[in-house]
Design a protein that fits this description.
By secondary structure, this protein is mainly beta. The protein has one domain (39-340): Porin. It has helices spanning 12-31, 44-50, 332-340; strands at residues 59-70, 73-82, 92-99, 103-110, 115-122, 127-135, 143-151, 155-165, 172-182, 187-197, 205-215, 219-225, 230-238, 243-255, 263-276, 280-287, 291-299, 304-313, 318-330. It has a 19-stranded mixed beta barrel. It is globular and about 70 Å long. 15% of the residues are buried. This is Translocase of outer membrane 40 kDa subunit. It holds the Pfam family Porin_3.
């Protein structure tokens, strides 16, 4: 049987395709291209490292974490919150995490009944499958997200599904696919496509977004063009070994419902800096909407760290303040290994 089907692979057409692919792969390797990251994190240095969008909080917060093992990783956490704005965080939340080089399992349950679970699996060094499930109290529908990320030597590809279902007799949900490719050692171009359908009674919707990323010696610039008429541009620069700065601009162009044919233009520009000291990190940010924010993370001792967050809105004449204290405890064996510098060097879990 195998000899009878050998003509499918042993012919001039297949040989020509193999030679073309081998020649193309050799030329790609000769360019010395590196992995550019993902479309989702195309502006990670500015939006997720320098600016305060992912760090700001209000009220009082206390986090107690106990690490039982490092290989595999296992820890549990207790979080207490008071005075959180609009009740965004429950008064109490319990979470646990288990991580190995291939598997990551994490669960979180709050006193308000909110439940979140994460399960990631690394099939090989390049392919990771991620699942995220959330159940909110009082909500008629939860969230199920399934991601498949592939990291190549000079590209990244991802396929995501949000609440996929076939129970109505057809496919519903939100599906997204993205691809980011290094063109030169400095330039990377990407595309992201989205298909969604809330129900079989409504037609599906599609959208396509484009992005670009350029990396210099000590600076990175990126831009994104989304189908909804949104343009996002960012610029990050490393000023010194401990100082970083970034600028992020977001412009939205949408039809004005009150005026036929008129385009409504809205935009916000944010400027931020990040200072890293020996035992602390300070971030500051100001934007064109009149908001001034700062955040200070200070490690007082080995198991204790303090975080202070503050924001002043000059336009609305409002101020917000947050204070958090974190205790991270470990077993005596882990503390002895940490003090002696004999921590095991194992691959990180598939976060």
């Amino acid at each position: 049987m195998a000899d009878a089907l050998s003509f499918l692979s042993d012919n001039a057409v297949v040989a020509a395709l193999k030679d073309t692919y081998s020649s193309f792969s050799a030329r790609r390797e000769a360019l010395g291209l590196s992995n550019p990251g993902t479309v989702e994190n195309v502006a990670r240095e500015v939006q997720k490292d320098v600016l305060l969008s992912n760090f700001m909080f209000t009220g009082l917060r206390a986090d107690l974490t106990k690490v039982f093992a490092m290989s595999p990783l296992f820890r549990v956490s207790h979080a207490f919150t008071m005075g959180s704005q609009q009740g965004t965080l429950p008064p109490y939340a319990f979470s646990s995490m288990y991580g190995s080089p291939r598997i990551l399992l994490q669960g979180n349950i709050g006193s308000d009944g909110a439940l979140a679970a994460v399960a990631n699996y690394r099939w090989n060094s390049a392919w990771v499958t991620k699942t995220n499930t959330q159940i909110m109290p009082g909500s008629a529908q939860g969230l199920i997200q399934i991601d498949n990320d592939y990291t190549g030597s000079d590209f990244s590809a991802s396929i995501k599904a949000f609440n996929p279902s076939i129970l109505e007799g057809g496919i519903t949900g939100i599906f997204m696919g993205s691809y980011l490719q290094s063109i030169t050692p400095s330039l990377a171009l990407g595309i992201e496509a989205m298909w969604q359908r809330q129900g079989l009674s409504v037609p599906p919707e599609t959208a396509v977004s484009y992005c670009a990323r350029y990396k210099g010696h000590d600076w990175i610039a990126s831009a994104q063009l989304q189908a909804q008429g949104t343009i996002n541009a960012s610029y990050w620069k490393k000023l010194s070994d401990r100082v970083e700065a970034g600028v992020d601009m977001n412009l939205q162009f949408s039809p004005n419902p009150s005026m036929m044919g008129d385009i409504r233009k809205e935009g916000v520009t944010s400027v931020g800096t990040k200072y890293e000291f020996r035992a602390s990190t300070f971030r500051a940010q100001i934007d064109s909407a009149g908001k001034l924010s700062c955040l200070l993370e200070k490690r007082v001792a080995m198991p204790i760290s303090l975080t202070f967050a503050g924001e002043i809105d000059q336009v609305k004449q409002q101020a917000k303040i947050g204070l958090a204290v974190s205790f991270e405890m470990a077993s005596e064996e882990l503390m002895e290994q940490q003090e002696s510098g004999e921590m095991p060097n194992v691959p990180s879990p598939p976060f």
